[in-house]
Amino acid sequence: MNNIKVFSPASVSNVCCGFDVLGFSIEGIGDDIFIQKSNTKGIKIRRVTGYEIPIDEKKNTACVSAKALLDYLNINQGFDIEINKNIKPGSGIGSSAASAVGAVYGINKILGSPLEKEQLLKFAMQGEFISSKTAPADNVASALYGGLILVNNRENYKVIKLPVPEDLLAVVHHPLIEIKTSKSRSVLPKTIDINLASQQLASMGGFIHSLHTENFDLMRLILKDYLVEQYRADQVPLFHEIKKIAVARNVICCSISGSGPSIFSLVNGYEKANELKLICDKTFSKSNIKFNSYITGLNSGGVRII
Ligand code: ADP
């Protein structure tokens, strides 16, 4: 195989109680990446369409991840990469992670799949560290595995794919401004109150149980972020307004994706999701902030060949 085209999805991360550890892929929104073998050494970005990203091979997450993979495999082959960038960088929905995952997945396929999917994650993370030194693995794991995932950032990036009730949907609003993960992390406190930590743990346990039992009432009652949202809320345009609308409509939860500016709500059922999307679209339109909005299941696929 000499070339491949892959789709690598955007993803919601920091899902409410799951700071740095819970994420899910977004249906049909992401990077289209074309990779082909080249006769020259190294990994080069040959073309970028859509949103602007660095093309320097030391600064692009796709190149850095691909290089880490090739170095590990001790392979000298060069590759050219073209990216159709559909997600604005600094989105909070894993723009940098989508490229990193697409590059390692595509190159591994071209090479005849010497590594399993779970072995690719740590190479994609080398790219994520270029976008933010403190990047957690929830976006990368979501793009790689698809669906709703729980990832352990310390123990060798163990990923657990969680069961998702079919009716569970997310409404995502992405204001088209850039918030860098690195900057947004600096507003977080270095220590946390033990009582809040305890509540967050109960929320996580309850959420996992509600997924297994498909219990939306429990999910609505228990799913909450006690630790992070409060510090980032003011940085995210219209977050307070959107959250107020979502809470009034009795959604399961509404919070900030990644470091923002994207906002997501979880709802059960398409009708509720669509109503919420339309009303939040109106709020954004009135404010003159440019935005994209999506409805996605929480069980959509991860990176794939197209
Ligand atoms: P996001 O949540 O959108 O990934 P981050 O702040 O984590 O936002 O990463 C965005 C940063 O990564 C920007 O500075 C961007 O220039 C840089 N970057 C490097 N390569 C890429 C890429 N292939 N796609 C998106 N962003 C990239």
CATH hierarchy class name of the largest domain? Alpha Beta
Termini Cα gap: 14 Å
- Number of helices in the DSSP assignment: 10
The overall pLDDT, averaged over residues, is 96
How would you sum up the major sheet?
7 strands, mixed
Low-confidence stretches: none
Number of domains: 2
Characterization of the model:
The chain is an alpha+beta fold. The chain has two domains: 3-162, Ribosomal Protein S5, domain 2; 168-297, GHMP kinase, C-terminal domain (Alpha-Beta Plaits, 2-Layer Sandwich), CATH 3.30.70. 38% of the residues lie in helices and 27% in strands. The protein is built from ten helices and eleven strands. Strands 1, 2, 3, 4, 5, 6 and 11 form a seven-stranded mixed β-sheet that branches. Helix 1 (61-73) packs across helix 3. The radius of gyration is 19 Å and the shape is globular. The model has no long low-confidence stretch (mean pLDDT 96). The structure holds adenosine-5'-diphosphate. The site of adenosine-5'-diphosphate (ADP) has 20 residues, from helix 1 and helix 2. Adenosine-5'-diphosphate (ADP) is lined by residues 53-54, 59-62, 89-92, 94-97, 99, 131-132, 180-181, 258.
